[in-house]
Design a protein that fits this description.
19% of the residues lie in helices and 42% in strands. With 192 residues, the chain is α+β, with helices and mostly antiparallel strands. The chain has one domain. The strands form two sheets. Strands 1, 2, 3, 4, 5, 8, 9, 10, 11, 12 and 13 form an eleven-stranded mixed beta sheet that branches. Strands 6-7 form a two-stranded antiparallel ribbon. Strand 10 and strand 11 form a beta hairpin. The chain is globular and about 40 Å long.
Length: 192
């Protein structure tokens, strides 16, 4: 082994040892400030005895500025287990709220025309049980989104049996970018 290669290996080994020994080694943002810490696993909690997955569609328009609420989504048990026990990356979460920018141009998709400006708000914390949905998240443009609502298990079971129904199954208070909407009602839809 050449002296040059040996020097490089020793330098790399020293760097690894130094990083491993740092008690306060955290990633930094581009401006040198510490990057925000990931929420603790306890911030995400689900306790469900049955399947409540599906799209929850508002029964009346909910609009904050240019942002129109399209739906709230709740995933299946495996989605919760994966999120709560593993890495949280991408544009999918077991609970999320979707909005569209009503000023954005329409675009054609295989499902028809939709607004091109759409955003999913992923959770920074949630609690989902058989009778309750609590959510908090943030997305650029929309700001902080929070929801605290009651999930009606009997109405949900009826809607699932009928493959959808206009009756509300989830009712609660939604805040979007500092604006609060009381009594927001959602009906259940299985999706495509």
């Amino acid at each position: 082994m050449s002296m040059r290669r040996l020097a490089v290996l020793l330098a790399c080994g020293g760097l690894v040892a130094w990083v491993a020994g740092c008690d306060d080694f955290r990633p930094r943002s581009g401006d040198g400030a510490e990057a925000p810490a990931a929420p603790a696993a306890a911030a995400f909690r689900s306790d469900l005895s049955g399947d409540v997955s599906g799209y929850y569609m508002p029964t009346a328009e909910v609009r904050a500025g240019d942002w129109l609420l399209r739906n709230a989504f709740i995933g299946q048990e495996a989605d919760f287990a994966g999120w709560e026990g593993g890495p949280r990356r991408g544009v999918f979460a077991p609970v999320m709220f979707e909005f569209e920018d009503v000023t954005s141009p329409m675009t054609a998709t295989e499902l028809g025309e939709v607004r091109s400006g759409q955003i999913r708000v992923l959770p920074s914390r949630y609690e989902v049980t058989d009778g309750r949905v609590v959510f908090e998240g943030r997305a650029d443009g929309v700001g902080v989104v929070s929801f605290n609502g009651r999930l009606d298990g009997d109405a949900l079971a009826t809607a699932r049996r009928n493959l959808g129904d206009e009756s509300p199954v989830l009712v609660g208070t939604l805040s979007v970018g500092g604006r609060t909407f009381d009594g927001v009602r959602f009906r259940w839809w299985a999706g495509d």
